[in-house]
Sequence to fold (456 residues):
Amino acid sequence: MNLPADFVTYTKPLLGEQWNSFVEALNGESPASVRINNSKIAPAKPLAQVPWCDSGFYLDKRPQFTFDPLFHSGSYYVQEASSMFIARVLKQYASPSMKVLDLCAAPGGKSTLIADFLDDDSLLVSNEVIRSRANILSENITKWGYPDTVVTNNDPSRIGRLKGFFDVVLVDAPCSGEGMFRKDERAVAEWSLANVKLCKERQQRILVDIWPSLKNEGVLIYSTCTYNLEENEENIRWIRDELGADILPVDIVKEWGISSSFVEDVVAYRFFPHKTNGEGFFCAVLRKKGDEEKRVGKIKDKDNRSKINPEAEYKNLILNPDRFTFYLRDDRWFAFPSRLYSHLQIIRSELNIVSEGICLGEFKGKDFVPCQSLALSRFLNKDAFITLEVDWKTAVLYLRKETLVLTGLPKGYILLTYGNIPLGFVKNIGNRANNLYPREWRIRSSNVPDQFENII
Fold:
């Protein structure tokens, strides 16, 4: 790997005698790792665990995830191991009934990790400022299957209007990407000292904009995938001194190989590829201090909430329906946890929402057409549907949104499963089945392997 000369000049003194080991690691193979969705599946293979994340595992090799139906079902997420350290932070600082913001959330790895840690009375807001990436984020959140999530598409300054709303804010800041050099050749080509300076300024603007939304005594988790001081320790000092925060420690184990901060007055956690089995990563945790922000009040309900028969067709499609509020938006029926519904209304009053809760489906004539969000929800009532277990080849055909021919089954909506995990719906009309898999989610690659070995 041809490292930029300015990067070498800057970074080599920081690492000292570790430099050669660091460069050797950068020229090695990037490890593959996944995080399991324990609400859907348990690994069938013995896998090496990521030490700082109970649900994270290393793979022996990097497989072709595209053609694994379990990947598309939300049974696991392909995530870089170092970034799973957020799980360790949450394990120490998470508490019941929290409202959490993942500010720069696309494509969704850290959001799905956060969702695993939250209890049923907690809310996760996952935001992405770029609309195309927000749609990808929404897809991955939907696949993970948790109903107490909202995906938004907003600039941090707009979210800052929700004063004192969040208990925890994760800012996985857009950065110069030095920690991705081994994994992404473009990161090497695009790196420059000017870009480092630009990233630092952007990160500080983001932090200023979002800071009002964090409640007093709330926790800020700041992370990057870069090595330099400017975007890391210097920004933590800046948050402490300019915004008003205390830096918090995280309990770690020496054998994990996590490095400490490069400066004495900042507590932070660094991941280097020659010391930990993962890519470059930086993380620090801070607690906001200062005067209490004025909280956002309750907003009057503007949804067309269900006032019809409680045995309505869409209500028996989910488990524990008494936990949910049902409402109509844009001609589609939704279910959202009732205890969090007032929070949803507050968010809607200020932010642009991409997706929320469980989208159950919509009425078309006398038919209720179920939504993909319902199929992948962990609250799906499978008994409400005729279910068909399919083999790998049929599952791939479905995920490519090709027409399926189903025999010996009644007409109507049928839930397809693979390994007993729901994939989505088809409408059987007799001689063929209409494929209801979302077109924008479909597998586009035509290089389908002859056979497939299960990954997990």
Notes: The chain has two domains: 5-288, 306-334+361-441. The CA atoms of residues 117 and 456 lie 22 Å apart. The radius of gyration is 23 Å. The domain at 306-334+361-441 is CATH 3.10.450.720 (Nuclear Transport Factor 2; Chain: A,).
